[in-house]
Write a structure and sequence with these properties.
Family: Belongs to the cation transport ATPase (P-type) (TC 3.A.3) family. Type IB subfamily.
Protein name: Heavy metal translocating P-type ATPase
Structural class: alpha+beta
Shape: elongated
Distance between the termini: 44 Å
Number of strands: 24
Keywords: ATP-binding, Cell membrane, Membrane, Metal-binding, Nucleotide-binding, Translocase, Transmembrane, Transmembrane helix
Strand content: 15-25%
Radius of gyration: 32 Å
Pfam families: E1-E2_ATPase, HMA, Hydrolase
Number of domains: 5
Number of helices: 25
GO molecular function, one term: ATP hydrolysis activity
Length: about 700
């Protein structure tokens, strides 16, 4: 089966029940592996077998359920001017009713509209402005699920028909509620309009990313500088960026200099100086002027990766959202039942059908499945966007949610806490080996490894004009070392002392006690060893302190010798019991399992093959960008800047997001738990209920937006 994943923009959803309906229909199809619909983001992410169906067929299925779908080529749809006009026209039609009600508050009926004019306005509203609600309700019922449109349609139509019947049958103009049928629709429409603007605007981190690249670029073509659209640029083209402009592609500076603001991409708060030979990133803002060679374009740039990752992540669903899904599935039928009971009970008790129907309508109108449906995805979208701005990419919503519960972090040492650029600080040689010989044979083997220590040995050989020898039958043992055969030499091993089969002489002390050792043997006979030192990253100490201040335990797990790991831990202020050396990939994974068995929620941070099992096993695995492919594939999130401080920020953002989700769910449930009974006993009029319904969704969205303003 050839699985393809596509993101769609969905239009026409009014509450979580709509999203659930699309999921239910598509997930029943044999050729659909998985479908998740994000109500807050108005998107659907579908994984399907492209040998059995295609995108057009998927769009037709979605359209049959009553919604519009388009492939997500850009995140932010164009503003709907018709919707804008309808909302303001509806508010204008409701204004005379407002004026009349204000007059009644002061004991005057002069400002009340004549009954025929009330009927005319209410009829226009019901036959034109309410049509989107009716269409949504009919499509929903046909699909076997009731949504918010059903509640609004039934409520406003019932109060309109009741009022019209009172006038036509009894000519009773004192117990009519045309204003309620108009003003409820006005409030709900305004609320949905503001909700849509908020979702597509303030919550839209993807829209911000997509606007980072310029539409036109200055490029050197045919011995002249020309202005071309971005899609006309090719790899290898020389591009120019001037003061205040945005870099259009990932590339290398060939002339000029400047300071690049890469904050949107890496989370770096300060601009980075760029000159000839330095790399620049698409989307960064330049202070200065420089020319650069385009090396990555479009989706292949860091910005392209980030956009794709965020689109996938925001299209996924957090486990906590399942609660909202379950509630949404029964919410509308339950409210309809409560409304009918309210009508019957009030009619029997008060013997007044007018009071009964007004209260029944208020129950329908005040109930808000939207707030419940928005509670989780709105917070997830805001949290994802904030995380990306701080240089942390969560691959899905489940990872973000789990990260909010992390209380223990396990860190790899090399490349995570340290700079990952070790230097050789000393060399030990046997009597029959020269430094040149040792570097030649060691670099011959290490050139096939991806570890920073291997790169240090290769670079040391090249800096001395020593060319690596040819090596065959290369074999890498994760966490131990690497071996290969060299013609005329034999089997060469480079790695841990145990792997190479010997111990260092006892007279070696000082730097050898705390350095990382790379031993070298030929046919299991010692020929020498390298002592390498890798300094801490500048922000590692600060990051560890912040983790501990936020009650997160920290452990260092490394394949390095225990003395080296203990020395690093001492620099970071960690006790010896939280520094673990000589750890194989299996040891790291087993240690994480032990922590989890104690009820601990564990995050693992690493960058190499050695870390892949632990990254996969941890509750949340963080890979450092630029890690080995297997490490990034095993991880649940990526740290763009290769900084532990980004880990701290990512965990704090996740905690804040989880907190906002719980607040939103609490508010949404409390609102409905209190609002429906209050409406049933007459404490809320339909008009006030409509206003409260609109405000409930806006309140949930506003609470989610607080994540954008928080400092981490």
């Amino acid at each position: 089966m050839a699985t393809e994943r596509i993101n769609f923009n969905i239009q026409g959803m009014t509450c979580q029940a709509c999203a659930n309906r699309i999921e239910k229909v598509l997930n029943k199809k044999d050729f659909v592996e998985n479908c998740t619909v994000n109500f807050a983001g108005e998107t659907a992410q579908i994984e399907f077998d492209d040998t059995q169906t295609n995108i057009d067929e998927l769009i037709k299925i979605i359209e049959k359920t009553g919604y519009q779908a388009t492939v997500q080529t850009s995140w932010q749809p164009e503003s709907n001017s018709e919707t804008h006009w309808r909302v303001w026209a509806l508010l204008g039609l409701s204004l005379p009713f407002w004026i009349g009600m204000l007059g009644m508050m002061f004991g005057s009926h002069i400002l009340m509209l004549p009954i025929l004019l009330q009927i005319l306005i209410a009829t226009v509203v019901q036959t034109y402005f309410a049509l989107p609600f009716y269409k949504g309700a009919i499509a929903s019922i046909r699909g076997g699920l009731a949504n918010m449109d059903v509640l609004v349609s039934v409520g406003t139509l019932a109060i309109y028909l009741y009022s019209l019947g009172m006038v036509l049958m009894r000519y009773d103009t004192h117990h009519v509620y045309f204003e309620a049928s108009v003003m409820v629709l006005a409030f709900v429409s305004l609320g949905k309009y503001l909700e849509a603007k908020t979702k597509r605007g303030s919550l839209n981190a993807l829209g911000s990313l997509l606007q980072l690249t310029p539409r036109e670029v200055t490029v050197f073509k045919n011995n002249a500088w020309k202005t071309l659209s971005l899609d006309k640029i090719q790899l290898g083209d020389i591009l120019r960026c001037v003061q205040g402009g945005r870099i259009a592609a990932d590339g290398e500076v060939v002339s000029g200099e400047g300071w690049a603001d890469e904050g949107h991409l890496t989370g770096e708060s300060q601009s980075v100086y760029k000159t000839v030979g330095d790399k620049v990133l698409a989307g960064s803002i330049l202070s200065g002027s420089l020319d650069y060679r385009a090396e990555q374009l479009g989706k292949d740039t860091l910005l392209g990766d980030m956009t794709a990752a965020l689109a996938d992540a925001q299209g996924s669903k957090a486990p906590i959202a399942r609660l909202a899904d379950k509630v949404a599935a029964v919410f509308v039928p339950t409210v309809l039942s409560i409304s009918v009971l309210t009508l019957i009970i009030n009619w029997l008790i008060a013997s007044d059908f007018t009071t009964a129907i007004v209260r029944a309508v208020a129950v329908l109108v005040v109930a808000c499945p939207c707030a419940v449906g928005l509670a989780t995805p709105a917070a997830i979208m805001a949290g994802m966007g904030q995380a990306v701005r701080h240089g942390v990419w969560f691959k899905n919503a489940a990872a973000l949610e789990m990260a909010g519960s992390i209380n223990t972090v396990v860190l790899d040492k090399t490349g995570t806490l340290t700079q990952g650029k070790p230097d050789i600080v000393d060399i030990w040689l046997t009597k029959n080996t020269t430094e040149k010989q040792l570097l030649a044979i060691a670099s011959a083997v290490e050139q096939h490894a991806a570890h920073p220590l291997a790169n240090a040995i290769v670079q040391a050989a090249l800096s001395r004009d020593i060319q690596p020898l040819r090596a065959d039958n290369v074999n890498t043992i994760a966490g131990e070392g690497i071996s290969a055969n060299i013609d005329g030499v034999g089997e060469v091993k480079v790695g841990k002392l145990d792997f190479c089969g010997f111990k260092l002489p006892e007279h070696l002390s000082g730097i050898w006690q705390i350095a990382t050792i790379a031993a070298v043997s030929i046919n299991n006979q010692a020929v020498g060893a390298f002592a390498l030192a890798d300094p801490l990253k500048p922000d590692s100490i600060t990051a560890i302190n912040r983790l501990r201040e936020n009650h997160i335990d920290v452990h260092i797990m490394s394949g390095d010798n225990p003395a080296t790991v203990a020395h690093i831990a001492q620099q970071l202020g960690l006790p010896d019991g939280q520094a673990h050396g000589n750890q194989s990939p299996r040891d790291k994974a087993q240690f994480i399992q032990q922590l989890q068995q104690q009820g601990t929620k564990v995050a693992m941070v690493g960058d190499g093959i050695n870390d892949a099992p632990a990254l996969a096993l941890a509750d949340v695995g963080f890979a450092v960008r630029g890690s080995t492919d297997i490490a990034e594939q095993s991880a649940d999130a990526v740290l763009v800047k290769q900084s532990v401080n980004q880990l701290t920020e990512g965990l704090l953002i996740a905690r804040a997001t989880l907190r906002v989700i719980k607040q939103n769910l609490f508010f949404a449930f409390i609102y409905n738990i209190l609002g429906i009974p209050f409406a049933a006993i007459g404490l809320l009029t339909p008009i006030l209920a409509g206003a409260m319904m609109a405000m409930s969704s806006i309140s949930v969205l506003s609470n989610a937006l607080r994540l954008k303003r928080m400092k981490f």
